[in-house]
Description:
Strand content: under 5%
Number of helices: 10
Amino acid sequence: MSPDLIFWLALAAKMAVAAAFVVLATVAAERLGSLIGAMVATLPISAGPAYIFLALDHDAAFIAASAAASLVANAATIVFCTVYTVTAQSRGLLASLSASLGTWIALAVLSRSLAWTVPGAVLLNVLVLAVCMPLVRRFRAAPMPATARRWYDIPLRAAMVAALVATVVASSTRVGPSLTGILALFPIVLTSLMLIFHPRIGGPATATITANGLPGLAGYGAALLVLDLLAVPAGTAAALTLALGVSIGWNLIILGRRRAQSAKVARLPAGGSR
């Protein structure tokens, strides 16, 4: 078998695995509401498979450098969610998605012109969260009506994620770790959810996903920091496993706190009547 054929078969397998994982995770989340949908969408369900496949082709230093660049891109994704959340309250899909994606791309390009350190990237994420969280807080509770899935939802999502994985993996050797890390964080899952839900249930309801997703992106950033710090000393397999554990654990904590808050609010009328 020729080396070219092996490369394309391997790439096709990587695309299929990543797409299947994303589709299964997001379909499960859609059945359980916007908060769980946001928590699943902010797990590394597209970047995670991309990093696993990158680790098969590159050394730990490459993975660490890519994770540092992804940490900067995570701040751009926080802004992406904020712009969409605010714009979607009164604008259609085209305007909302153009504004949010345009902002993400502009910030990603700008980040390439600056020399980032890991502490600087962490501080950037903290500052962006501090500004954006208050802006979206009031949009987290809009009602999300039930919707029937259309025949093209799963193929669309699978195709978008597979294309992202193919781009990241195939171009990583040529573009280097910095651009690879940025491409791996392209908000493909959130974009696919916008494309599917916004025309069907409206902007405000769809924006509950991106508004609820900001706390999850804080955990995403923590996972990337773990990957950057541990890839070289602990090895990529251990670092990727720990990073995934951080992301999942963080989002489970958010879910637990939100449910506790909801239960407390639900008990208030009874307590006030005594």
